[in-house]
Amino acid sequence: MHFAITIQTELSYKQYFSLDLSDYLMNPTLRQMRAFVAVAKTGNFTLAAQNLHVTQSALSGLIKELEQTLEAKVIDRSTRRIILTDIGKELYPLFSQMIDDLDSALANVADHTHLKKGIVRIAAPQLLSCTLLPEAIAAWRGQHPDIQVQLKDTEVEGVIARVLSGEADLGIGPERDPAPPLDARPLFEMPFALVFPKGHELERQPRLTWQDVARYPLISLQGQFTERLRDEVDAAPLKPANEVTFMTTALAMAAAGLGVTVCMPYAAPLVKLYGLVMKPLEEPVLSRRFFTYTRQGRSLSPAADSFMVFLDEFVRRANP
Questions:
Q1: pLDDT at 16 over 50
Q2: CATH number of 2-113
Q3: Which residue has the higher pLDDT, 19 or 72?
Q4: Among 59, 167, 250, 261, which has the highest number of CB atoms less than 10 A from its own CB?
């Protein structure tokens, strides 16, 4: 500020505002500053050159360039020792702090880039969050134990909202109409299956159709899940007896004998846990596509990007 005021008193306002201040600015390079700090810290050109892995003549050249840039001496050399000038004493703590801050920032970037630090925040429907995703997260963290993974389980319609708000780096969920303003990357596609209690009369049938579904109380999910099924199954009018928020609720109700439900085959571990039977549905064979959603125009962190690539491969191996 004082420098600018001094210039203004010596120049007219017109001259001042048309002035190229770069002519007056001093621009020491990072290499020059590192050289000066190394010499000031060690008090010895030989040791400083060794620490910087340069020759002593190259180090002397950098100090000379710095002094030419600043138009001031920073070091007084003698045959016995090195003494900082008054200007050098002022610059040493400043340059030293700048270099420390820069090195710390660069080390932090390197930790993120090399997956030694970071957080991955994932939003996913409850059913995916208690079947497929825990296994995928555990497998990925086995390779990257220093990365924290936060799984945010939610209702299906909440996945996209969490990604849009920035609460999650990426979301995993089924295709939705209309398409949200997100980047959608295909993850997998699966056909619907019918789920019912063991010993149910449907267990004896070799093939199951949507007409069979219509004969029993259907426990379905709220929102687009049921709406889209109604549009796609023309031969059998679907009238859910119950519409619930979470598929785990539908499975629990089916296990209690309150009806049947339809879901994706990735839920097989949970279906088995509830003591239920899962069989494919035909006439027609209906499927759902699942996507990985990310915000448009926003780059993922190295950790989140790595997890998304890993998840693609994990799903392919789990469901060829």
A1: no
A2: 1.10.10.10
A3: 72
A4: 261
